[in-house]
Amino acid sequence: MTSLLRALSPSLRNISITPYKSILGLSRQGQIRLNSNKPVREVEATELPQSIKANLYSSKYTHSNTTERVPDSGHPLPINVEANYYAPLRVEVPTHADHVGTLTLRGHESETLDFYMDFLLRACYYLKMPIIGPRFLKKKRELWTVTRAHFVHSKSKQNFERITLGRQLKIMNTNPEVVQLFFGLARRYAPAGVSIRADLFDFEHLGVGKRMTDIKLSTDRTDVQEPKYEHFGTDKNADVAQRVRELLEDPVFKKHLKKEE
Amino acid sequence: MVLRELPLSAIKPRAPLLKLKTLIMRDHVKRHNFADQEVTTRALKYIARNTELPMRARMEAQLQLVSMPNYTRFTQVKNRCILSGKGKGVFRDFRLCRFLFRTEALKGNLPGVKRASW
């Protein structure tokens, strides 16, 4: 969670890092609020090496004009910390936009999903990605009815269910490298109990079909032997073909082949 | 030396998490045997079913298929409860029998599974 906070805003390093529950409280869907009353440890600029100091934002960008002050120190809140009080900001989506990627979250708890989606929406804003969503996916409900006792014919039953919820984010008009960076971020900071599916779409110029014929497919068996192709096709794969060739060259089979010819 | 001084009850081991049962082990062997011979079986089936090959070669392949050990067939493999070894009433999603599914669900060991009422 501390790394999440750091990713959320670079200015947060000025605040003492405390466990998640004391700093952030989830009040409503899509809203994070600061609840911290902990003392703040200030980092003086002289402590930092020159290379970092050169890359720091000026206070014009990191400090808001809010009347709210960081407790004890009296400094105004950094603007991206204050942004956590509000719903995530968004980049405007143009009327005609290209759909370049989709991120799908799945899990069993809505709180976890909503909290993580909130984090991702903020990340999208800082990466300047126009997005549509999050769309609520249809929930999948699985039901099981079992007997309470281990005896087969016992009459009393008990019901169990597992509900899988989903949230989907459509990413528009973004460079594929940035989308992949975003997917990497989403995967890295994923909390427990959230599964992520990332779809990246690629666009080609017209006439791809003609160019496809020029691509020479490799006939080398080492390509097919990679683990991801191991179970591709149950009946006919490279291993089976090789074994058939070996068997037919075996004298037991070869004599039959010769006689017929 | 230290162990001798301890009372017997202190050395008593805890019950193992996985009860290794004969039927589970047998099923395990069957799966391994099937995996080992899978390529050969599929190759022989390909030869036996290929109508372009001479009849004698196809018959030979069929004979070899029949003479293979029983444990190399996938029909021998059965899904069993991984905790109790039961062969009936096993949920594929959890690989547990219905009763252990209930106990594990009530303990909260199965993610997302809750008591349902409607």
UniProtKB/TrEMBL annotation, chain A:
Keyword ATP-binding: no
Pfam families linked: Ribosomal_S10
PANTHER family cross-referenced by the UniProt entry: 30S RIBOSOMAL PROTEIN S10 FAMILY MEMBER (PTHR11700)
Protein keywords: Ribonucleoprotein, Ribosomal protein
Similarity-based family: Belongs to the universal ribosomal protein uS10 family.
Highest taxon listed in the record's lineage: Eukaryota
Keyword Nucleotidyltransferase: no
One GO MF term: structural constituent of ribosome
Name used for this protein in its record: Ribosomal protein S10
Gene3D superfamilies with a match to the protein in the record: Ribosomal protein S10 domain (3.30.70.600)
GO terms (BP aspect): translation
SMART domains attached to this UniProt entry: Ribosomal_S10
A single GO cellular-component term on record: ribosome
Species whose genome carries this gene: Nadsonia fulvescens var. elongata DSM 6958
Domain spans labelled Small ribosomal subunit protein uS10: 102-199
TrEMBL record, chain B:
Keywords: Ribonucleoprotein, Ribosomal protein
Origin superkingdom: Eukaryota
GO cellular component: mitochondrial small ribosomal subunit
InterPro entries (alphabetical): Ribosomal_uS14, Ribosomal_uS14_CS
GO biological processes: translation
Gene3D superfamilies noted in UniProt: 1.10.287.1480
Keyword Methyltransferase part of the UniProt annotation: no
GO molecular function: structural constituent of ribosome
UniProt keyword ATP-binding present: no
Chain segments annotated as transmembrane: none
Pfam families found in the cross-reference section: Ribosomal_S14
UniProt cross-references to PANTHER family, sorted A to Z: 30S RIBOSOMAL PROTEIN S14, SMALL RIBOSOMAL SUBUNIT PROTEIN US14M
Assigned protein family: Belongs to the universal ribosomal protein uS14 family.
The protein's name: 37S ribosomal protein MRP2, mitochondrial
UniProt lineage: Eukaryota, Fungi, Dikarya, Ascomycota, Saccharomycotina
